[in-house]
Structure formats: C-alpha cells, structure tokens
Amino acid sequence: MKLKNVLTLCILPLCLVSCGKKSIYKYEVREVSIATVPSKGIYGTELSIDLIGTNSLFVADSLLVADIQNGSKPYFFEIYNLNTESLVTGIGVYGRAKYEFLTIPVIPTRQYYTNDGDIIVPVNDNGLIKELNLTQSVSRNNAVIENTYKGYSYKGASTVILDNDVQFAYRYARPDDNITEIKDLLPKAELIKDGKVTRSIELFNSFMKDHRINKDQAEYYYWGKLLKKPDSDIVVLPMFLMNYILFFNLETDDFYAIHIDGYPTFQDGINGELATRCFLSATATSEYIYAYSVRDFYTLNEDYPDSFGCILKLDWEGNLIEAYPIHDAVITDIAYSETNKKLYGLNVYSGDLYSFDF
Residue 314 and residue 294: Cα distance in Å, rounded? Predict the structure, then answer.
C-alpha cells in the first residue's frame, strides 16, 4: 500500500471523531469581542441611603425596594424614594394572612408590571407567588397583595413571570441523586402553569468536563439569574461563573447564546483553579440589557488601569453596544430606573449605594 493511502486511512478516523463531536450547548453560540465596541469609564456617586443588611437591589419607577434578610428590622421590605434619598415606609411581616408572609419573602424575578397605573411586583413566599401592589402598599404603609398563585417550588432554579401567570424557569441544579438518565440530570428550561410543568426545553447535549471539581460545586457553573424584557416574552440568563449570556425568545422559539471571546467555553470544561465570577448581576430596560461583570476586561488597558469590573450594554438581539469600566465604586448588584435614566449599584457587604449617570 502506498504511503499516501496509509496516511489517508490514519487521518480519516481522527477526522470522523473530531467532526462528529457534539457541542455542549444545543443551540447556536455567537462570539462577541469586548475589544470591538466603544468603552467609557463611569464613576459612581454615593447616595445617602444605607442598605446594610440588604441582600439584593430592586428598582421600580423612582422607588427602591430593599429586602431585609438578616432579621434586623420588624419588616421584610424597606421602600426608599430615590429622588429624595429617603425612607418612605417598611412593609411585610410574618403571618398567615393574605398580606403577610410565612417565610422571608424574596423578589426572585427582578421584574414588575403595571395594572391601572399601579406597580405590581411578584414576590415569592414559601412557594407561593404573591403579587405585591407596590403603589398601594406605599400609600397605606402596609403590604397590599392583589393575587396569589402556586409558584415553581424547585430550589435550584431561577424564574420569571410571563403572560397569564405562566412561569419560565431555568433549572441549573441536578434534581435528584437517584436519577440516572443524563437527559433528566442536565440543566434545562421549563414552562410552568399552576405549579405544573407544561413544557420542558433541553439546552445541553452533555455536561461540561469537570476539572478537579466535585458534583455539587460543578452545578454552580451552570447557574445564573433570569431577566425578562419588559412587555415581551424574551428572557436572558447571564451566567455567574461562565462568560455566557443565554437568550430565550419564547415568542418565536429562537434560542441561542453569546460568549465573550477569549474566555473559557463550555467545550473547555470546568477548571476550578481558574474559577472567577463572571456576570454577578444584570438589569434591563425595554431597549437594553445591562450585565455587570466582575471580570476586569480592561486590566491591561492603560485607559482604565483601576477599574472595578465592567457593565456591558447589549440589545435584545445579543449585540454588544458599549462597555462601561467602573471607577471608584465596588458593587455587587445593579438595577436600572427608566424613570430617572440612571443605573444603581449596591455593595451588599458595606450597604453602600451608588448611582451611575450614563
């Protein structure tokens, strides 16, 4: 046999194995580059609102809702006026009444909607979704609940509320150690109505390869918090430990992801020694997504030698518009006020609150 034919036979199996290898993520992944978009350093203005003890930041209109998770106050929520930087009221107490809460309530969806001009905020109370009328609650100095329905009870998931009280959930944790079918263990998306799953959407062909990471730790490499486009059933998931943002257009069933070029991919697998938090928080308007990354994309850029992370501005088609390296403000959570046209950043460890005027 000629040498040329021998080489052909040796190379062919390698090619078949390489070409036939499935990608980890089922849908299209688009690469985006920070280097190709405009950047502008921003400086935070510290506000006179002390949010020590607050777990997360939520803004609706010109009101800031701080959830009190450490039991330091006689209520669960503090409501502030961002224009006057003053406390308006505190609401939410323990109890079994409709306007009370059985457990420490959270605002899991980071979204709100309006009803006859009133601001409605979905709040999770021990697996029940309670629609908190924020406008009336401020007026009456007491929690006003409009409606209650069964929520998605799975703990290892992030959820948002779609039309007609349908929930969209991204389930990142493995549901049961006794389950052996790989398709049932993989992270997936689900649609839920009245507490029941009505549709399951597979997202991954396989798990990422784990490098020196145990099973429980590995789950968090798939973790993120869902964010919904106002007045539309388009949802995104900025991931906490991977430089990906997953896009779910539930109006057209168009699913894809974007990945920041130059950082580990799903195909690279999990490397615990290189683990760094990526998208710590995100907020959205009807036009843009603002994703806050603690990865310092500009460390080696002489224009931004002292930046504390970066806020990426994207449109709802996944196009990267602009990048904002942050100066002189260390934050852990962000929220945007369309009324004030400002982004707010919270440091949960110090309670410091900053505003950023773009």
Answer: 17
